[in-house]
Design a protein that fits this description.
The chain is an alpha+beta fold. The chain contains twelve helices and 22 strands. Helix 1 packs across helix 12 and helix 2 packs across helix 12. The relative contact order is 0.18.
Amino acid sequence: MTYDYVIIGGGIVGVSTAWQLKQRHPDCSVLLLEKETQLAAHQTGHNSGVIHAGVYYQPGSLKADFCKAGVDATINFCKQHNVPFDQCGKLLVATNPLEYERMLDLQTRCGINEIETELLTQEQLKTLEPNIQGIGALLVKKTGIINYRLLTQTMAKQFEAIGGVVQLESEVTAMHETPGSVQITICNSQSVQAQQTALHPVNHPDPKITSSPLSNSNARAKVETISTRFLVSCSGLMADRCTRMLGIKTDFQIIPFRGEYYQLPAKHNGIVKHLIYPIPDPDLPFLGVHLTRMIDGSVTVGPNAVQGWKREGYGKINISLRDIKDMVLFKGFWKALKNNLKTGLVETYNSWWKPGYLKTVQKYCPSLTLADLKPYPAGIRAQAVMENGDLVHDFLFAHSARSLHVCNAPSPAATSAMPIGDYICNKIEDQQKA
């Protein structure tokens, strides 16, 4: 059997796209492939959990448009499906005159993007957040917090409820496009699929995939080829490899940046009432180390942005020879490294020297100490870099006759997942009409 649509990638963007495609085309078969044993295993499940309001984004950019629509869509979905969230608000804190000027520029940008803000004096900031210091702050009330992994899983259940199929532990290893379809070779585990079928029965359109359950002890890998009339890749850290599998001209490469976090001890769970952000450097796509109230009541510190040497490397020391080879052979990597050398050295130093990391936080929260920085899982950002060394700040897409690829989905992709999915559906329909 040939599927009507296959989506690669079980992060929040892939799940949103699959769900909305199935809603638009209820009579079409839609399959979502995810190589891990659970959804939201990478960027979606390793971020700060912030529902962004859209403060930083260039007016008229896809990021600005998606984020503005995404806040309301995310909150509405949470209300409808009982997903916990909290619109606690965010404070962007300026600690010196340069940051204050940048903060005023952000306030102007917010006005253009129709985002409500309130400019606070030093005294007002101190009253609102006694443990935070700065010469002024920008209050954004619409910002919130959520568990994006839970949101993704809830959305996937809605997708399955209307006939969509989620197939876990299915890694795409090759693809070939013909005039009528795309052939996808996947390597999967029969035991995992059998467990899924037993625990959550679905009417899979391919009878080979709903084989009789196997025990864990008899797990074995299975290679198979499936076919689809149209492919959508939302593969994040593997986006460039998916385009190359189909022979699409790829003038970018995914460069991994580790985002390292710490968690504060429980005694500090009430240290802030809002999310506390520094004023970011407008030339970089990273927001800086911030204090985040998590939906479970804890508080995290982070993330930084350190050059990674493994695309899915979440430990302290992570090396992949394949990933390193791809980077060093890509001329854009060296140009980006040269263009951002000073920032990269500072981030690397602070990554390995904990007092340096702490100093970035003490700038606005001086009461924290080294003992307060407890271990917490890192995240990996899939940053698209062009051949000329430019870091891609906005969304980037590529396509062939029968495929569409999300090549760069920067923050706030999690906040914006629903409008992004809608946008992708529109692009698919336009492409199929052409």
